[in-house]
Amino acid sequence: MKKWGNPARNLKHSATQRFSSQSFEAVGTVIESADPSFEPGQIVIAHGMGLGVDRDGGLACFVRADASWLVPLPSGLSPLEAATIGVAGFSAALAVDRLESMGVEPGFGPIAVTGATGGVGCQAVGMLARLGYEVVAVTSKPDSRGFFKTLGASEVIAPPGPSDRMLDKGMWAGAVDTVGSDVLAWLLRSARPEAIIASIGNAGGNRLPTSVIPFILRGITLTGINGNSPPTLRRRIWERLGTDLKMRRIASLARVIEPDEIDDVMVQMVAGRTQGRAVVAFCGA
After folding, report:
1. What are residue 257's DSSP bridge partners?
2. What would the pLDDT profile of 70-103 be if each residue is shown by its tens digit?
3. In a 3-state reduction of DSSP, which class is residue 46?
């Protein structure tokens, strides 16, 4: 695959790097293919399906991948835009699509997005804002207000600390949570009746210190998002990412780096000193 990602049976490419020694995704050009669904010269996207976890990921000039992993680059996206979106933006789009399918519409009330400076969070903010939702970005980074205003957030707030309360004042018609633990518990107890909360990450921990009270007294729905989607859903979501879910100025979220910068950028990510996306360019892409 070529410089912006990780695709199909031998590709020259580049990749978006997230918290791993291997990239979870890649965008690139097919060099050769044993599957007639993909032709040399075609630009494709690869992510999930064990890529970068059970199998080598995108930190290489060439990647061999199963055809079932791949999605053709949508006509509405450039390779750099697709690599910037990556599995984080795909997961954010899944969450937005889920909220829509469960009946959450613009005008129903604020939608909270937690962990909002991360790859999933910032893209969820931008997608929801583009669709006309009132978006509240929840972040512990107080210097990021200007960043979120450019993405379309109507408000930026800090998450509260842990609490033993079972219910708070209802504020959210829906939410996209990337943090888990105490932050997800707070969203549940502060959601409005019949709200939908999409859980997509565990940056704050795996445990969920909550009770049944938000579910049985307010009818809250907690729905999980899994980025390893079947091919039909995967292609539909990527088509949306090139059309109605395409963030304005998506490429502006990307910092394009060279392979020898990866270690330093990863240290900054783990320390919480980054926002947006880092895209690794390989082989002169």
Report:
1. 280
2. 999 999 999 999 999 999 999 999 999 999 999 9
3. strand
- Do 214 and 177 fall into the same domain? yes
For residue 124, give its domain range.
Answer: 88-224
44, 167: one domain = no
For residue 221, give the 3-state DSSP assignment: strand
**Does residue 45 contact residue 238 with C-beta atoms inside 8 Å?**
yes
Nearest in space to 223 (alpha carbons), one of 164, 172, 176, 169? 176
Query: Which pLDDT value is given to residue 271?
Result: 83
Q: What is the DSSP string of 97-165?
A: HHHHHTT--TTS--EEEESTTSHHHHHHHHHHHHTT--EEEE-S-GGGHHHHHHHT-SEEEPPP-----
User: From the CA atom positions of the chain, what is the Rg in Å?
Assistant: 19
Same domain (yes/no): 217, 120: yes
In this prediction, the residues of the chain whose per-residue pLDDT falls under 70 are: 1-24, 284-285
pLDDT (tens digit per residue) in 155-175: 999 999 889 999 999 999 999
Pair 114, 207 in one domain: yes
Q: What is the largest CA-CA distance in the chain?
A: 58
**Burial class for 161, CB neighbours closer than 10 Å (0-12, 13-18, 19+):** exposed
**Rounded to an integer, what distance in angstroms lies between the CA atom of residue 13 and that of residue 1?**
3
Beta bridge partners of 51: 55
How far apart CA 228 and CA 215 sit, in angstroms, is: 27
As a whole number, the mean pLDDT across the chain is 87
Task: Specify the pLDDT at position 200.
Answer: 95
Q: What is the pLDDT of residue 85?
A: 93
Q: Tell me, what's the pLDDT at 54?
A: 79
Q: What is the CATH classification number for the domain harbouring 112?
A: 3.40.50.720
244 within a domain of the structure (yes/no): no
Task: Please tell me the pTM assigned to this model.
Answer: 0.88
